[in-house]
Model the fold of this input.
Amino acid sequence: MNIRKKILTDENNKPVAVQIDYDDWLECERLLNLKPIKAVDLAEFSGKIALKEDPLEFQKRLRDEWS
Done:
């Protein structure tokens, strides 16, 4: 199988990822007999946790601690 690929590198020219065309990916999935992963509906978890603080304010407060 001839796969058209692009090798992505970091600032030191070290390979960090490979990008392939979607059609090639589908063929790889078919050849490897990979099953698609079923998406999870996260809406069923909505409201399950009672938060004491606004999540964005919490995130901002934590990030302010970093500096």
In short: The first helix runs from residue 22 to 32. The chain has a mean pLDDT of 91. Strands lie at 5-9, 15-20. The CA atoms of residues 3 and 24 lie 6 Å apart.
